[in-house]
Write a structure and sequence with these properties.
Distance between the termini: 55 Å
Number of helices: 10
Structural class: mainly alpha
Number of strands: 0
Helix content: 55-70%
Largest sheet: none
Length: 223
């Protein structure tokens, strides 16, 4: 009989039953709550178990230590952003390239900044829990979906869709990182959104064929 696939990263047990899934959800929610309330240095498995309303032994059935907890929370957070981006890509297939760019930029920033405190806290702990691999996997999902989307653009593309997606996410990731490193990220969120859109659309205009570019050159829409 084949063995069940292991849970990614350091988690111990796959929550196959509904009750187990609810327990894991409660533990991960509690991890975020403790992280926000007490900070990463005071976050312990005991505190998380108490907040989740489970025993430490139950927590250890799924997560062997604090590092595994934080990895799982970070992965779920980034998977949620990736899912939002994939759904946006599905909605905008065969549209114009600038419309695609507006949609992806808005979706990414909305998802990343929906809960700024959580995003900032997870960004701060990412390097402590080897989050690079988790970020890389989520980025690969998003860039792959975006490249597939750009390939359906109604304009003729003058550049490779994979390259366009790589540049787009370099811009989006850099802007989000700058905001999350700020002491008051919500303060600059609206201006960041406008400026990122200007940058994205200016770049995407260079990605269509020259003929298409001459035929349609709409003004930047910062809505």
């Amino acid at each position: 009989m084949p063995r069940a696939a292991p849970l990614p990263l350091n988690a111990r047990k796959t929550p196959v039953q509904a009750r187990s899934a609810l327990t894991v959800d409660a533990i991960l929610q509690a991890t975020i709550q403790v992280l926000l309330a007490s900070g990463k240095d005071r976050l312990t498995t005991t505190r998380v178990a108490e907040r989740a309303g489970v025993s430490v032994g139950t927590l250890y059935q799924y997560f062997p230590n604090k590092r595994a907890l934080l990895q799982a929370v970070l992965k779920r957070h980034l998977d949620g952003i990736a899912l939002d981006m994939e759904q946006a890509c599905a909605r905008h297939r065969s549209n114009g390239l600038l419309e695609m760019g507006r949609a992806l930029a808005a979706t990414y920033l909305d998802a990343k900044m929906r809960d700024i405190r959580t995003s900032s806290a997870l960004y701060a702990v990412s390097s402590d829990v080897d989050g690079a691999a988790i970020h890389k996997a989520a980025s690969a999902r998003m860039q792959g979906a975006a490249a597939a989307l750009f390939a359906t653009a109604k304009e003729g593309l003058a550049k490779d869709p994979d390259l366009i997606a790589t540049i787009l996410f370099s811009v989006l990731n850099g802007a989000a990182r700058k905001a999350l490193e700020d002491k008051s990220p919500s303060r600059q969120l609206e201006s960041l959104r406008v400026e990122v859109l200007v940058l994205v659309q200016a770049y995407l205009r260079t990605c269509t064929s020259p003929l298409r570019r001459r035929q349609a050159s709409p003004a930047v829409d910062s809505r």
